[in-house]
């Protein structure tokens, strides 16, 4: 099976991995999950990380056809809109984005969501040509309703379904998340050929591991994943996942990330004073 050429970009600020994936024959490429740098203390945005991906694409002589999101990220801002503007690429995301937008648009009073924020909403089983390769979309809801996996040649980009075998799986406590559904989505990834190279969206370094890692295989995950490997049952997985979810804090960039990412990485429109603001809905503890 044809192997796409893959360059990974790790963002230590958010533990996220972005990928530049190319068909070696035609030089057609896609960017998966680009990060827009954001310093919440000062409100400063920067495209430095995304520009590194664009520079690498230029050095490798690649034409970026698509920017693909594995889901509406809740922990970092997406640079999809920036990459689209600079490269002319189109932006694709799982069809479940509509459910995420419906849940969160009222939270932020986001009445400016536009159809054009995403060029293509991808259904389970959709395919996109990438030169001589084909991108196959596998819907993998559970972490969020919009989660998809992109299978390309001998590689699959699994977003936040699986983390490294020693760390486990993604949380399922966001709106529309569902641990049983995540279990069943992961079984679909396990049904890919065992040697399939899996590329993850995050790494948090499991306890005892000194280096970041984001590449594994179907066989390694199916055998050794600490949450779901070795034939874990759905019931055992759901109990473990729900118990762990109950201990997790909200991601640090939850609100900034969601309100930009439901717009495909477009910033909220300027206020009457001409400046742009991000909103943080307040909850009064104990009220
Ligand atoms: N501490 C991180 C947590 C980020 C987080 O919640 N990541 C999600 C994926 S978007 C997850 O599934 N985490 C699983 C875990 O940390 O066990 C942050 O604040 O950004
Ligand atoms: Fe996520």
What this model shows, in words?
The protein has 287 residues and is α/β, with parallel strands linked by helices. Helix content is 25%, strand content 25%. It is built from seven helices and 15 strands. α4 (179-190) packs across α6 (234-245). It is globular and about 55 Å long. The termini are far apart. The mean pLDDT is 97.
Q: What's the layout of helices and strands?
A:
Blueprint lengths: L4 E7 L4 E7 L5 E5 L2 E5 L4 E3 L1 H12 L3 E6 L8 E2 L1 H8 L2 E5 L2 H12 L11 E3 L4 E4 L2 E7 L8 E5 L2 E5 L19 H12 L6 E4 L14 E3 H7 L9 H12 L8 H8 L26
Helix pairs in contact: 4-6
Main sheet characteristics: 6 strands, mixed
Class derived from helix and strand content: alpha/beta
Helical content (DSSP H or I, runs of 4+): 10-25%
Please mark out the parts with pLDDT under 50 across 5 or more consecutive residues, or reply none.
none
The best one-word shape is globular
Mean pLDDT: 97
Total helix count?
Answer: 7
Residues in β-strands, percent: 15-25%
User: What value does the Rg take, in angstroms?
Assistant: 18 Å
Quick structural summary:
The protein is α/β, with parallel strands linked by helices and 287 residues long.
Features:
287 residues, alpha/beta, six-stranded mixed sheet, 25% helix, globular, binds glutathione, binds fe (ii) ion
């Amino acid at each position: 099976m044809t192997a796409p050429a893959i360059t990974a970009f790790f963002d230590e600020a958010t533990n996220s991995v972005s990928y530049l994936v190319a068909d070696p024959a035609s030089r057609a490429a896609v960017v998966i999950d680009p990060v827009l740098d954001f310093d919440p203390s000062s409100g400063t945005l920067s495209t430095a990380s995304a520009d590194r991906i664009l520079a690498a694409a230029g050095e490798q002589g690649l034409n970026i056809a698509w920017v693909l999101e594995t889901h509406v990220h809740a922990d970092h801002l997406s640079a999809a809109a920036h990459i689209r503007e600079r490269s002319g690429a189109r932006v694709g995301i799982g069809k479940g984005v509509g459910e995420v937008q419906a849940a969160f648009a009222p939270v932020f009073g986001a009445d400016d969501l536009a159809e054009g924020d995403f060029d293509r909403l991808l259904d389970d089983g959709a395919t996109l040509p990438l030169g001589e390769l084909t991108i196959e979309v596998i819907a993998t809801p559970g972490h969020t309703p919009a989660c998809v996996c992109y299978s390309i040649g001998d590689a699959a980009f699994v977003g936040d379904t699986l983390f490294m075998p020693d760390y486990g799986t993604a949380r399922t406590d966001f709106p529309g998340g569902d641990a049983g559904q995540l279990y069943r989505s992961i079984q679909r990834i396990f049904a890919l050929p065992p040697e399939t190279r899996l590329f993850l969206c995050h790494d948090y370094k499991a306890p005892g591991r000194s280096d970041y890692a984001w590449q594994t295989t179907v066989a390694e995950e199916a055998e050794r994943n600490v949450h779901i490997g070795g034939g874990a049952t759905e019931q055992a997985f759901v109990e473990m996942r729900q118990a762990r979810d109950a201990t997790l804090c909200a991601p640090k960039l939850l609100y900034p990330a969601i309100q930009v990412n439901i717009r495909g990485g477009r910033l909220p429109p300027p206020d009457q004073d001409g400046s742009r603001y991000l909103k943080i809905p307040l909850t009064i503890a104990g009220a």
